[in-house]
């Protein structure tokens, strides 16, 4: 009845059972489930963790920005109503302003900048 190769392929597909269609639907469903667990779910988890970190930031936390700068939070902008700008002390008498969203992680939670340890005078006295 069909004399062209395309017609033969179409005739074979129409005569096949419904099992192949169910397998194809199952296969596409499996791909969707895999995409959910490999892409969507981990991204939602990272977003949730970033939001929790931003809410939990406080003065004195040692943080790292997305660009790799490490410093201590000294305050949040009072002029900004949302409080989205943080002041970070990166060196003595050097502070920078960064967006809260640019802070990628806490290095040391709620620790204050450690003062330079004074030279042990007791040890130096013992040596004399």
Task: Describe what this molecule looks like in 3D.
With 128 residues, the chain is α+β, with helices and mostly antiparallel strands. The chain has two domains: 15-56; 58-108, SH3 type barrels (Roll), CATH 2.30.30. It contains three helices and five strands, in the order ααβββββα. It has a five-stranded antiparallel beta sheet, with helices on one face. The model is unreliable at 111-121 and 124-128 (pLDDT under 50).
Mean pLDDT: 78
The largest β sheet comes out as: 5 strands, antiparallel
Work out the helix count.
Answer: 3
**In which order are the strands of the major sheet placed?**
4-3-2-1-5
- Strand-and-helix sequence, N→C? HHEEEEEH
| Unreliable residue stretches | 111-121, 124-128
Quick gist of this model?
44% of the residues lie in helices and 23% in strands.
């Amino acid at each position: 009845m069909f004399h062209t190769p395309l017609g033969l392929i179409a005739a074979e597909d129409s005569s096949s059972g419904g099992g192949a269609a169910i397998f194809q639907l199952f296969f596409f469903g499996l791909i969707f489930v895999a995409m959910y667990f490999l892409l969507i779910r981990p991204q939602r988890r990272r977003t949730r963790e970033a939001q929790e970190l931003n809410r939990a930031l406080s003065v004195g936390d040692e943080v790292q920005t997305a660009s790799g700068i490490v410093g201590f939070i000294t305050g949040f902008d009072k002029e900004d109503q949302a409080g989205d700008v943080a002041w970070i002390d990166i060196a003595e008498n050097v502070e920078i302003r960064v967006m809260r969203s640019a802070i990628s992680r806490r290095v040391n939670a709620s620790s204050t900048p450690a003062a330079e340890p004074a030279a042990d005078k007791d040890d130096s006295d013992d040596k004399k």
